[in-house]
Amino acid sequence: MKRSLWFLIVTGLLVLSLVACGTEDTSDTGNSEEGAEASEDAKRVAVVLTDQIGVNPFFQQIADGAEQAAEETGLEVNVIESSDPTETKQNLEVAVADGYDFILTATFDAVDPLTEVAQANPDRDFAIIDAIVDLPNVKSTEFREYEASYLLGTAAGLSTETNTVGIIPAEDIALLDKYIVGFQEGVAAVNEDAEVLVNYVGSFEDPAKAKEIALQQHSNGADFIAAAAAVSDLGVFEAAEEAGFYTSGQDIDRTVENPDHVVLSQLKNTDVVAYDFVKEYGEGVFTTGVQSFGLAEDGVGLTFVTADSEAPLHDFIGQDTIDQVIEIKDQIISGEVEVKNPLEQ
């Protein structure tokens, strides 16, 4: 009797154990399938760049902003780099063929490729940063660079000791007037005695020529020279270190690279725009059309004025100048000071 009772107890425990194990395994399998299904249902974003991130830090900002927004909104994001701008159309077409729901690109090099691809795929959502494509399925970005250029000009006009400053743009094209005219107007607003020298490199990628021009401007009395020529800016930076004048960078904070000579940087916050666009898409509130980003939207700015820098503020600029430029920045945002778009004058 005791043996029979013991046998029944042991058998019952084994059955319960098997049932419990079976239930646990089934539960785990179900969770795994739900996770896989959720992953498959996640919308996918492709960031198609016209160049490689290592070549242009401007693109790193875009990738960072898009990835942060995707993480926050549960999107999948893939960054596709082009070895040169001619590959952009092919990479956009690949993103469409691979089924990406939202495709983001940037710069004027992408305008023609995106126009063709977006027209051929009217049911797909696209966006472009730092350029405009006027199509119903494309969201475009307009930066008010002239507002930041104006601030840079006021800082230069207040800081110059020779009353001569310069700016070196890449090419004599209308697009760069947003940098040149804003800078000139900023200088004039705070220092009517200052002269602004303007000389063009003739290329976005000729540091040697830019260096030659910078040295010439310095020999003509310029103690501050704004670099506005993309890769060619490297030549201006090199000249500043050799000749002992001061300069500024563009788009990203270049003061950290040589704080003794690159004393300011005009900022274009492409990470903010990429973040906003991807987040809007992830939250289901994405709309097309043209969106403008200036000082008020944190789309443009100036180091030490709208954004901190890891580099120390140079004495050539000084905190008194920064305080005055901050006040001017606030006046631009409030509308008390109007900085007009030179392309519309």
TrEMBL record:
It is a lipid-anchor. One of its GO terms (cellular component) is plasma membrane. Belongs to the BMP lipoprotein family. CDD domains: PBP1_BmpA_Med_PnrA-like. This is BMP family ABC transporter substrate-binding protein. Residues 1-22 form the signal peptide. InterPro entries: BMP_lipoprotein, Peripla_BP_I, PnrA-like. It is found in: Cell membrane. Keywords: Cell membrane, Lipoprotein, Membrane, Signal. It comes from Gracilibacillus salitolerans.
